[in-house]
Amino acid sequence: MTDITKLHLAVDLGARARDLLSNELLREAFNAVEQDFIDTWRRSPMVDREQREQLYIAQQIPALVLSKLEAILRGGKVAQDTLDYLADEEKRQAELKERYPAPA
């Protein structure tokens, strides 16, 4: 897979991550799951340390997933900026060759 192909793939993944992050239903579902874990953790007996630790860790998972999606989104933006730069550079090089042709 070429670097350009990888950049296009990152742009596509970034767009898909953006779509997921802007999906209000998905956001509400993540918030509800997180709140369910928090509520269960609060109701759990203080003496059940293992269950409380597991609930605490589980409560962090929705935020970790959203964080990963945000990182993919940022990667897609960087990839798009890189593709834009490469396209502009290619255009500048073509203009220079046209303006200053190589001597015969």
Account of the 3D structure:
The protein has one domain (3-97). It is built from 3 helices and no strands. It has helices at 3-21, 24-43, 49-99.
SS summary, helix count: 3
Structural class: mainly alpha
The string of secondary-structure elements, in order, is HHH
Average pLDDT for all residues: 94
Low-confidence segments, given as residue ranges, are: none
* Helical percentage: over 70%
Task: Report the biggest beta sheet as strand number plus sense, adding barrel if it closes.
Answer: none
Give the terminus-to-terminus CA distance: 37 Å
Our estimate of the beta-strand percent is under 5%
What Rg do the Cα atoms give? 24 Å
The 3D shape can be described as rod-shaped
Counted beta strands: 0
- Tell me the domain tally: 1
